[in-house]
């Protein structure tokens, strides 16, 4: 089944290839959370409901029935962003023998990527989706002054110790807002190193900045698939929506959900 409607589009294979390349490259350049989250999938466009299993889930047997305790079901949302290709632009470039102008595809892909990161970091309250910064049960640690001194290094070291005490072992990740990330670019007196490099040394280089995070925001998590992952049904792909007034309406779609299985594998610096 051509659920993306591509067969209805009067586009050459070369144009579709250029659209796909533009969308993929623009999304990859923008996405942040996918750089450190475990990835589950893609499992197919039909994925509508998925289980979120707590690490200590058990099967309960009673009266000839068995149920799973520690598992909940969640609806997988569709994320989308639209753009247009105008017939006169396509005709003009075709007559001139020039490549089609598809910068609109890149812009739409960047918008979709930011929406995915926004969902992952802050959740979607209207849909009942938890985010890393909004899920109940995440650890909270008082943040020192990351603008001076070595509070950033001390805070991250303390967060690692707290996670290890809870038994949350694996790859640790720190993500910050742009202002805090910039503040870490200073030489630490006596160490001869950027504070950024000292923090990176604690987490194996896994320090990331995201523009969708509000100022003065930072968190750490143990990025292991038993604690958290990004489940994807249909990965980012462009569909042909409709022909309107001779112009081409296209939609970039994906289906994905953040699965937080162990909220206590997250530490939010506040």
Written overview of the protein:
The protein is an alpha+beta fold and 270 residues long. It folds into two domains: 6-132 and 229-261, Major capsid protein gp5 fold; 139-222, hypothetical protein PF0899 fold (2-Layer Sandwich), CATH 3.30.2320. The chain is built from six helices and 14 strands. It has helices at 13-30, 87-96, 103-122, 151-165, 178-183, 195-202, and strands spanning 39-40, 49-62, 65-75, 78-85, 139-141, 172-176, 187-188, 193-194, 207-209, 218-222, 228-232, 237-244, 247-260, 266-269. Helix 1 (13-30) runs parallel beside helix 3 (103-122). The relative contact order is 0.23. The mean pLDDT is 94.
Instruction: Please indicate the percent range of residues in DSSP E strands (runs of 2 or more).
Output: 25-35%
Question: Tell me about the biggest sheet?
Answer: 5 strands, mixed
Task: Quickly name the level 1 CATH class of the largest domain.
Answer: Alpha Beta
Number of strands: 14
Tell me the overall shape.
flat
Number of helices: 6
Number of domains: 2
Helix content: 25-40%
Radius of gyration, whole Å:
22 Å
> In CATH terms, what is the fold-level topology of the largest domain?
Major capsid protein gp5 fold
Name the average pLDDT: 94
Topology pattern, helix = H, strand = E: HEEEEHHEHEHEEHEEEEEE
Structural category is alpha+beta
Oligomerization state of this entry? single chain
Uncertain residue segments: none
Distance between the first and last residues' Cα:
49 Å
């Amino acid at each position: 089944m051509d659920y993306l409607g591509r067969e209805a589009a009067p586009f050459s294979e070369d144009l579709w290839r250029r659209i796909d390349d533009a969308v993929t490259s623009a999304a990859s350049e923008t996405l942040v959370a996918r750089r450190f989250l475990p990835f589950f999938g893609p499992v197919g466009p039909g994925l509508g409901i998925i289980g979120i299993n707590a690490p200590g889930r058990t099967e309960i047997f009673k009266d000839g029935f068995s149920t799973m305790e520690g598992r909940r079901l969640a609806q997988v949302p569709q994320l989308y962003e639209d753009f247009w290709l105008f017939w006169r632009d396509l005709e003009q470039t075709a007559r001139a023998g020039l490549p089609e102008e598809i910068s609109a595809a890149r812009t739409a892909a960047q918008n979709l990527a930011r929406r995915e990161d926004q969902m992952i970091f802050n959740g979607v309250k209207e849909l009942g989706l938890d985010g890393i910064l909004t899920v109940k049960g995440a650890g909270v640690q008082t943040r020192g002054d990351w603008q001076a001194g070595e509070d950033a290094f001390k805070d991250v070291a303390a967060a690692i110790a707290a996670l290890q005490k809870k038994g949350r072992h694996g790859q640790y990740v720190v993500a910050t807002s742009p202002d805090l990330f910039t503040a870490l670019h200073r030489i630490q007196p006596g160490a001869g190193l950027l504070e950024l490099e000292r923090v990176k040394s604690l987490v194996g280089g896994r320090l990331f900045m995201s523009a969708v995070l509000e100022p003065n925001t930072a968190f750490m998590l143990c990025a292991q698939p038993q604690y958290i992952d990004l489940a994807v049904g249909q990965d980012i792909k462009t569909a042909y929506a409709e022909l309107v007034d001779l112009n081409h309406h296209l939609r970039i779609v994906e289906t994905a959900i953040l699965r937080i299985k162990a909220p206590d594998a997250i530490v939010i610096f506040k």
